[in-house]
Amino acid sequence: MSDAPSRIPAQDDDRIVTPNFVTAVVDDDLKHGRVDTIVTRFPPEPNGYLHIGHAKAICLDFGVAEDYRGRTNLRFDDTNPTTEDPEYVDAIKRDVAWLGFTWSEERYASDYFEQLYQLALRLIRMGDAYVDSQSEEAIREGRGTVTEPGVASPYRDRSVEENVDLFERMRAGEFADGAHVLRAKIDMASTNMIMRDPVLYRIRRAHHYRTGDAWPIYPLYDFAHPLSDAVEGVTHSLCTLEFVNNREIYDWLVERLFDAPLPHQYEFSRLALDHTVVSKRKLLRLVQGGFVDGWDDPRMPTLAALRRRGYTPESIREFVNRVGVTKTNARTDLGLLEASVRDDLNQQAPRVMAVLDPIPLRIEGLPATALGMHDASLWPHDVPREGTRPLPLEEQVWIERSDAALEPPKGWKRFAPGVAVRLRHGPVVQCDRVEVDESGLVTGVTGHVVDPEGDGLKVSGVVHWVAQGAAVPAEFRLVDRLFADPDPEADERDITEKVNPDSLRVVRGYVEPYVVQADADTRWQFERQGYFWRDPVDGRGDAVVFTRIVTLKDGWARKESERSEPVKKPVAPKAEPSRSAGVEPDKVAALDAAGAERLARLEALGVPRGDAVRIAGDADLADWWFEAFEAMATPDASALANWAVNELPRGLGDVPLRDARLTPASFAELVTLLVDGTIAAAVAKDLLPEIVQAGGSPAALVQERGLGRLEDEAALAGQVTAVLDAHPDEVASYLAGKEGLAGFFVGQVMRATKGRADAASVNAAVREALAARR
RNA sequence: UGGCCCGUCGUCUAAUGGCAGGACAACCGGUUUUGGUCCGGUCGGUCGGGGUUCGAAUCCCUGCGGGCCAGCCA
Questions:
Q1: Active-site position among A71, A280, A389, A548
Q2: Is a pLDDT exceeding 50 seen at residue A566?
Q3: Distance between CA atoms of A273 and A631, rounded to whole angstroms?
Q4: Does residue A575 carry a pLDDT above 70?
């Protein structure tokens, strides 16, 4: 491969993906030379539009590769001819590009059909796959359930020759749909349902949008995906959490069919957003049922819709970064997405005025000099950008209906009888009369100028407006969440019944004339209302249609709603106090005869019951432990058991005990070193994982590195003083009451001594030294 | 019910076994010709119970809670 090797970004600010558990894996793989060029892939199925959840996967797949100077393939996972369509291929490419990512190569799983077919043949010849001729129902029944093992298919033991023959005839198109399938021969009793002889190929005599009628058989995801990764040289195959169970078949296949370096799969949690659904099937239903106006209806969570609505790609990438990448099942507040666009648009969007629900304001006493065009800044004082637009003022202007009230609530800063309010970029007008119809609806306001130049008077209220003669009529589409319910998928009710009837409100009002003369792609802030832009589909040219991208934060509206509906205190659900039931007796009862015998031996040796039960319950561990015990120079069953139970697991990490380089004898040696006082516990803990990985004799390592226990009390006191002197601020905080810092000092001293000091003594010494400084 | 994955402020997310931190939201105040922005501050969290350790969000056991798996979908 001609690529430059990947490297770990020098600085975290050089990254586009903020560090997470995936980048930690990548860092580690690079550091240990397991890979040298990072290759990822983004593998959408072209059966629907990409949505905000995909944005997370895209940013991760492409972002990680970019950060490490690797590459990313865009691979269409098109193995199911009945659902896929080239329309979606185009849409997906458009969306990925829009987000700002460039793929290294455009690939299709269907490109690999021949190769995959040959691999399947190889698997059959290896005896690892067979043609099953049971009906679909029979296969399902044979699979068993999560609690009962499956039963073998009567065709499971067909000869290799017969399997090859049948599979070749499947490929030749000799059989009807469903007559046979190819299955991996794994384990019908596996606790992982996916490993119960998963189906690899099915007969589907359907037209494929790319391969046409060339193939009557199609591979399934579990077969095609790992092998496509392997042929592309993917190093890190990132996918969402629901595929964790599939990792086992992924590894099973690539290990059998490919040589190292093999691709590895890592799973992260998918992005669930409040008030939205991100299931392609459900989105399809909304589109096909006409509940929305198409995949790009601005209420939809698709990238196409977000783009049409006016979201910027930067804001979506920022949002994805704020959400982060973890394995926890998370549900993200829609406010986080909105905050991300607002942050972006606040810097980008020129400020202009529009009235969405207009009522007339008649201004009396306006001097002739005040009429006509004025220059008004497009930017507020705090956005460091230049530019003005001509803004006409007339005696009759439109103002917002919600900016006038006959009987205002407390704290009101808008028009009400007697109240003076500033027109933005214009004069201060005192309200003389508020007109109201029989239903109480405000229909107009009359007022007089109190400050024609608009710069003498200090008033707290400022209101937006548009001069009537110059005003341009416009349609405004006020988009709101598609579902009022924060978790519309929580129950089984059909999604289409839950569509928020107010998710799209269309109103007619006015914008100032400058707005329609400017670049139609401009995202505007209509002051005090929100960010808008002209709908790219329905609102260009003569059609003046604005879509609201997002509202402004509105502190007043918040207070208003509190006034009208005081929040009910949610009753805190009482946590049922859970008693830890008699754990030990249960465990003891669960032991088989051999286990009980091991338990007895352990206890006879003086191992405390809790540890003894733990070890006895695991036959492999117990054998290993007894062997270690035999090897102990000065036998201390209790300490050995303590370490086997409490420290061994961490030392092992992901390494199974049988694969560890740590032998029972070296474990015994290590524990002995600790018990006889040769080394401190911290050193033993440091050494353990190292020996697990690399092997070696603890005593030799201690000798070689001079890790013997530090006995010199004066030296210790010196270290404590040095640490305290080096951290005067922390000492001050400690003395001021932040006692948690004691641990920090102890940690520093331990580090300085490479763990050779006795922690308890350090702890005592630190506290003493600190007390002396009080 | 079996296996696997996961539990940290309201939400999202940090923290080699060593100061539980950040963002969003909320609240209070300041600046402001946007009830916006910005600035300052406040509130607020390690799911429960045991164990190991000088020291546990982190390691072990256990209980509880959530998610995924019984497609010839991906």
A1: A280
A2: no
A3: 57
A4: no
Please state whether the peptide bond connecting residue A263 to the residue before it is cis, i.e. omega within 30 degrees of 0.
no
Is A270 catalytic? The answer is yes
Whether residue A431 contacts residue A419, with contact meaning beta carbons closer than 8 Å, is answered with yes
Whether pLDDT at A571 is above 50: no
CA distances from A91 to A71, A85, A95, A451, A540 (A): 22, 10, 6, 55, 22
Which amino acid belongs to residue A620?
Answer: D
Gap between the terminal Cα atoms of chain A: 64
Distance A415 CA to B73 C1' (A): 60
Q: What is the ipTM for the molecules in this complex? A: 0.97
DSSP 8-class letter at A534: E
Residue nearest to nucleotide B47 (CA to C1'): A575
Q: Is A497 a catalytic residue?
A: no
The answer to whether residue A570 scores a pLDDT higher than 70 is no
User: Exactly one of A34, A45, A601, A627 is catalytic; which is it?
Assistant: A45
Q: How far in angstroms lies nucleotide B54's C1' from the CA of residue A616?
A: 30
Nucleotide nearest to A377 (CA to C1'): B33
What's the pTM value of the predicted model, to 2 decimals? 0.94
Average pLDDT over residues A512-525: 97
Task: Please report which residue ranges of A191-276 form alpha helices under DSSP H.
Answer: 221-232, 247-257
CA of A284 to C1' of B66 (A): 28
Give the span between the Cα atoms of A411 and A64, in whole angstroms.
Answer: 51
Q: What are phi and psi of A556, to 5 degrees?
A: -70, -45
A158 Cβ neighbours under 8 A, 6+ residues apart: A130, A131, A166
Which nucleotide lies nearest residue A135, CA to C1'? B72
Beta-carbon count within 10 A of A685 CB: 16
The C1' atom of B40 and the CA atom of A614 lie apart, in whole Å, by 55
Note if A614 is an active site residue. Answer: no
pLDDT-derived band of residue A560, with 50, 70 and 90 as boundaries? confident
